[in-house]
Design a protein that fits this description.
126 residues; mainly alpha
């Protein structure tokens, strides 16, 4: 049986990342940028395991960004697109110290794929 991601669960991500109410609001902005990509993954021919792996990595990326803006409060005022493209690019994502080597490689694959999506579908429109 194929198991897909419950798209309604995505709305819970900003609160799961948050330490403050400000974090929730910023997290919602990040989610608005991630949801179309996740929908594209869900409509792809990827296996449910691969889709879940990408979703888990996106959740990790969002949490990393929220953690960053709590350490660097001046970045809270920046557009989430700026921070997303500061942390991910066509090569990899940020180094997450808690990840194994395999986990970091998986995370980097997701970041590369998401970066490509952002460039093709979001950044060229601004």
């Amino acid at each position: 049986m194929k198991r897909k991601i419950d798209i309604t669960e995505l709305d819970k991500w900003p609160r799961s990342w948050a330490g403050t109410n400000e974090d929730v609001e910023y997290g919602r902005k990040i989610m608005e940028l991630m949801k179309p990509f996740i929908r594209e993954l869900l409509n792809s021919s990827y296996s449910s395991k691969t889709i879940k792996e990408h979703a888990d990595n996106l959740w990790l990326l969002g949490g990393h960004i929220i953690k960053h803006i709590n350490y660097h409060v001046e970045n809270r005022a920046k557009d989430p697109r700026f921070l997303l493209t500061r942390f991910i690019d066509s090569f990899d994502g940020p180094n997450i110290s808690d990840l194994s080597e395999y986990g970091q490689k998986s995370f980097d694959r997701t970041c590369r794929k998401y970066y490509k999506y952002l460039v093709q579908n979001v950044l060229k429109k601004i």
